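Final report, Chapter 2: Outcomes

The project's central promise was a pipeline that accepts a single protein chain and returns its three-dimensional structure in a standardized token representation, suitable for archiving and comparison. That pipeline is now operational. To close this chapter, we reproduce one record exactly as it appears in the project archive, with the input sequence first and the structure output second.
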Amino acid sequence: MKSGYNAIACTHSLFQLFLNPNYHKTYCMKAELIIDAPIINKKEIWIKKVNQPHFDHPFHFHQFCELVWVEKSYGKLIVGDYAGVFSEGDLIMEGPELPHLWRCDDIFYKSKKNLHTKAFGLYFPPTLIPNITDDAKSLGLFKGLLNNAQRGLRFYGKTREKIIELFKKIINSEGLERMGYFLRVIHILNKTSEFEFLASIGYANRFNSKHDMNRFNEVYQFLLTNFHREILLIEVAKICHMTPTAFCRFFKIRTQKTFIRFLNEIRIGQACKLLQNDDQAIKDIYVDCGYNNPVNFFKFFKLITGKTPKEYRDNIKMMNKE
């Protein structure tokens, strides 16, 4: 969630070494957090506070685990091959080296709207817990949490409520008191089942150059800004100075997902957000999300969510009544 990351540096991953002792035999790309991150090579946690009109970071990844609490804001979120939305109150965890991009909705970039973004990122090295304890059960649970976080996690329910309360205490404490609250967070996350995965099972970071990261940042920013209108493949390919065929191949290799599928996930993610408002008709929603006809909208909505738009809206209503 931090701007100013250097997306590329070649090194061995301590996180992967913890999960797989043989990982050092392979070549990997390692991102570095290079701006005001005082926990590099330290057994500490770090809280990054965002208090500004909107998120301003590029598409990036880094070597730390990151737990993000969005106190105030909403917009689009890319985590690995996941494309969706984030909302006020979201609690999301991203594992080390998991590419991600947070972008507020367009209205936040219009100065006269007086909207504001307030969020907190809790960063910690994946080796922190193994360096604190040798307890086999605790390490086993933590290893499971890290494995899950490699796909990105969105927490909900009582877990989210408890973690947010602890988040507030971490923000307002220091030293061993802060570390104590952090360990309580890890204890809860280790045991909870109240989460949903974001990226697909088997997703792996295949970005191997800073140039690739920069090109995808431009592509993603373009898609998140223009998804509501017709987007021609040729105009996206031009961003990367490629032919449409070469771009589609490049996109699939890096994201493990087709460009068309990815674009539709952005659009359907926005549709799911709009369906939470009873006042907007479904026929207006599909137009606002970039579909020229309802056939494609209903097809992709069912394919991506497993429900029809009406079923999705009815499900939201039921959840709100409980």
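Archive annotation: The CA atoms of residues 61 and 217 lie 12 Å apart.
This record, like all others produced under the grant, will remain available to the consortium after the project formally closes.
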